[in-house]
Amino acid sequence: MTSKNTICLWYDGTALEAATFYAGIFPDSAVHAVHRAPGDFPSGKQGAVLTVEFSVLGIPCLGLNGGSAFKHSEAFSFQVATDDQAETDRYWNAIVDNGGQESECGWCKDRWGLSWQITPRVLTEAFTSPDRAVAKRAFDAMMTMRKIDVAVIEAAMRG
Question: Which of 12, 123, 134, 153 has its CA 20 to 30 A from that of 1?
Answer without folding.
Answer: 12
